[in-house]
Amino acid sequence: MKNRFIYQLIILGLVAFTTGCSLDEDPISEFSEVIVGSTDDEGDRIKYKNRSEVLAAYEGLYNTLKDRQEHWYLDYLMLSEVRSDNAYAGTTGSEVVPVENNSLDGGNSVINRDWNSYLADIAKANALITNIDSVPDAAFSATERRQWKAEAKIFRAMVMLDMVRFWGNIPVITREAGDITAENIEEVYPNYFPAQKTAEEAYAQIVKDLTTAIPYAPANNATNKTKLSKSVARALLSKVYAEKPMQDLDKVIAYADSVVADGFLLVEDLSLLFGMNEAGNDVKARNTSESILEVQYFTGGGNWVTWMFGRDLLNYDTQFSWAKWVTPSRDLIAAYEAEGDEIRKNQSIVFYETTWANYYPSDNYAFMYKLRSANSSIIKLRLADILLLKAEALVKKGGAANLTAAAEIVDQIRQRANLNGLEASVKGSPEQMLAAVLNERRLELAFEGQRLFDLIRNNQLQEVMNSLNQRDSGRLPQIRAYNEFSDLLPIPQTVLDNNPNLVQNPGY
């Protein structure tokens, strides 16, 4: 029996490694027991011998955010914005067209790489969380261990939140698989090839990670918004409690208020978040009062995904001979124009002349504009998103006082865009106020990966997407209609083939 298990594990393990899917072990090219750590006197493996080895792993988490932008930003925007009414796919590539025409299946290469990359991110966090307390280095203080462990938990929670919103039932992996022996094979096997947990269980783990991290995570630093701080954890908790499996409107509001209490403020000029300086040789600002978490780039180590979405304004003609991803939709442009919202439209969308004409005439082609150069920061969390989530929660709670408070938030954000406040008739209607909040979120947060989840959370995905071709002449016709299964992505087929304990999502 044990030999059969060992044989199956070896075969599946080889397949997993050749396809790039590492669930709990770091690849040898990065950190593993092959290059880091040793064994103690009793022969038990020590992952990290000293603080410097832990520091390398700790910094590796942040380097993952900075250097591996493909899955958590590039693909994330494709899968969230193009599956909504905000954007077209942008190219004719076989990996992206199905995102627009709703014909995704488990064979899609984008989905495959993202599933594997997210789990690899979680494995890195697990290695740090699991081993940091046992590092035999007396100079490695308990305070520093607790802080780094807290940051790793916030990292893991943030990654897991993306996964559960995309796929629903996912493996919830919180420890390393461990070494394999004939004696422990039946115990270790499920750690290498775990079954899915329910979305509710995944969200519960996310909440546990975030709440236990807050006491030890670093406080918000107004001069450095790149850290996984207490404020990041609180912002993520506000987002978690807004979602259907965990929805708790009071906690959405409470955590949003705690973010504000940490010292965050809306910037007066939206271009401070996304614009370039007057000289045109760098971004306008970093570490603004509105930014909660951002990944920063500088000359010499730039943000490579810029050229996947449009132009790099620091190198105007580089990589601009081919069509780009996440092209703004006519429906989104019409939404800006219906509000007379020129400020946010101009911060979100730009038009250039091109050599292609997939969706617009080549002499006036639309591009997303919130990532403008190789030096542009990727802003993962910002205050406007959290405030508008609070407004949404207030509307759903109901009552005149809550509707008034929600309207005040919306009007504050509209004022920055030089728009009039909401009309009194809207402020007095729960239905109209919810529509106003969601419209405000769309205009404010376009191309920041929020629209799809707003629609899903409010049970509007089918209604909005199944009528979209009737009002957006530029969108590809749907291959199949959106239905009750369309909230989730398919699990990659290669992952299902490699792990017999996983089950495909319904509808695929």
Automatic annotation (TrEMBL):
Record's subcellular location: Cell outer membrane
Similarity field: Belongs to the SusD family.
Keywords: Cell outer membrane, Membrane, Signal
Keyword Ribosomal protein applies: no
Domain of life: Bacteria
InterPro entries to which the protein is assigned, alphabetical: SusD-like_N, SusD_RagB_dom, TPR-like_helical_dom_sf
Primary location recorded for the protein, binned into one broad class: membrane
GO cellular component: a single term: cell outer membrane
One Pfam family in the UniProt entry: SusD_RagB
Domain RagB/SusD: 374-508
Domain SusD-like N-terminal: 81-241
SUPFAM superfamilies to which the protein is assigned, alphabetical: TPR-like (SSF48452)
Gene3D superfamilies, A to Z: 1.25.40.390
Name this polypeptide is given: Outer membrane protein
